[in-house]
Amino acid sequence: MSDPNGVARYWAATGLLVIGDEASRHLEALLEAANTDAWPSVRVVAAEAACRLGNQTAGLSTLGQIATDTALAFPPRLQALNALEELGQTALPLLGQLRPVAKISGTYAPAQSFSPPRAG
């Protein structure tokens, strides 16, 4: 997670996301990447992995911030929305914060790309 190459950091975070619970010894590095990495795509994957490892507060905070940051290009925002969708019920605390995202227009069609989690 400390490689100077953003692509390497992205794939390191993705690998940790994929291996699941076995990545728990790397939770601190994932949290640091989720909060401080210069690449939003690395932050998204690290945040999703942190959520899956039980640190929903920090992970959801990062995912919500990226998903709603209109200063970012839409691709990393869509990546954050996709991660939240994958997290399902875990993402419910962000539902109110995410509702305005469905109204955004532009090159991408976020309303068709993202299904907010449902309480239930």
Explain what the structure shows.
- Helices cover 60% and strands 0% of the residues.
- The model has no long low-confidence stretch (mean pLDDT 88).
- The protein has one domain.
- By secondary structure, it is mostly helical.
- The N and C termini lie far apart (36 Å).
Topology at a glance:
Elements: H1 6-19, H2 27-36, H3 40-52, H4 56-68, H5 74-87, H6 95-98, H7 110-113
Helix pairs in contact: 1-3, 2-3, 3-4, 3-5, 4-5
Q: Structural class per helix/strand content?
A: mainly alpha
Q: Which strand-content bin applies to the residues?
A: under 5%
The number of E-state strands comes to 0
Taken in chain order, the helices and strands follow as: HHHHHHH
**What distance lies between the first and last C-alpha atoms, to the nearest angstrom?**
36 Å
Sheet bearing the most strands, described? none
Helix content: 55-70%
Whole-number mean pLDDT: 88
Number of domains as seen in the coordinates: 1
**pLDDT < 50 stretches:** none
**How many helix segments?**
7
What is the CA-atom radius of gyration, in angstroms?
A: 14 Å
Morphology? globular
Give the oligomeric state: single chain
